[in-house]
Amino acid sequence: MLRDKLSIKLSELLSALSLALDSANNRIFQHSRRTAYVAFNIAKNMGIDEHILSDIYYASFIHDIGMTGEMTQYSIEDIHNDKKLKKEHCQAGAEIIKYLPLNERVHDFVLYHHEEWNGKGVYGLKHDDIPIGSQIIHLADYFDLNYGSILNEDINVNNIKRFFIIAKGELFSPEAVDSFLDVMDKEKFWFDLKFYNFQQILNTIEPNKQREINIGELKKIAKAFSVLIDKKSKFTYTHSQGVAKITKDIAEYFDYDKLVVDKLEIAAYLHDLGKLVVPNEILEKPGKLSKEEFDIIKSHPYYTKIILKQVKGLEIIADWAGNHHEKLDGTGYPEKLTNNNLTREDQIIAIADIYQALTEDRPYRKGLSKEEALKIIQDIGSKNKFQQEVINGLREVI
Ligand SMILES: [Fe+2]
Ligand SMILES: [Fe+2]
Ligand SMILES: [Fe+2]
């Protein structure tokens, strides 16, 4: 294995992570991806410099990243119809971006993506005081919020154009609107937006193709997302961070190469990524879940894996993260994997997860002591569900 050499594209990773955010029940599926596509085309047609163009593209994928935490309970429509929530998600999003390996420009593009050209937006910036990327994302975002989910119905392009012509110089920058009118004239634009495999379309336009991330940057992104995942439910506000810590300790106990330890830690940060897709009413339901509700919960490691697998170079991390509810005897979920196809790395995360869950406080019970948790895990292990070797590793590190 090559040390420190990852081949992961920043845009592909941001695109996949945006899908986790946009797949929740009260969001618009692929909203951020389409916003990125539309914003890119408007900016490109305006002749914007390559570096700014790629920052607009990155910012588009995460422009609504601030709609997490407490805001997961509101629908995307509610947030955009309420000036206070609108401002909050801009602010929260920009705050999260400070922890990502992205520059100041991307931060500002997200912070000001709800400014209006006439100065009546959330921070009251006016005209060219609004960063150019924000002007464009604002327009692309508005388009997708209103038309993104009905593209396959009978949409009337002339009506859409008429709307933007009226809003030109009021809501939106005149130059951005003119560019968008040009873009809308191309048949390809509409064919692309309706194409069934939208990521393929994004791959063809991707600006700054050479921009790959290193292991340190990947860890930063994974850690920032672990905070979003944990904050989604008040029951689990430090869960992923805890799992990452124990995973790292066990991995070091087994003397893995530094790069593998880092990758395991990243998989641990992201193991519950799929929970972003599960409705909060189910995640936080007090009392016993019905069979149907539990089946929905069981989809979270599935989404973790399938979302991470969209990123080339992340396949192994996707497996380790997505297999955290599998058991050696085939009684886990969602793939019913067994002994034959589960690795020690899978088991490290699975055991770190269960240990962390047992020892953390929940609103309805106190966390168990180390000894009590270890005893439970040992009991499960003796029924042929976990590798004894990994249980021993856990015992050594705690
Ligand atoms: Fe927004
Ligand atoms: Fe948006
Ligand atoms: Fe889980």
UniProtKB/TrEMBL annotation:
Gene Ontology molecular function terms on file: hydrolase activity
Alphabetized SMART domains for the sequence: HDc (SM00471)
Keywords of this entry: Hydrolase
Keyword Hydrolase annotated: yes
Stored PROSITE patterns: HD, HD_GYP
Family matches, as Gene3D superfamilies: Hypothetical protein af1432 (1.10.3210.10)
Record's keyword annotation contains Acetylation: no
Top-level taxon of the source organism: Bacteria
HD-GYP domain ranges (all copies): 6-196, 214-398
Domain HD per the UniProt entry, residue ranges: 236-358
Protein name, entry field: Putative metal-dependent phosphohydrolase
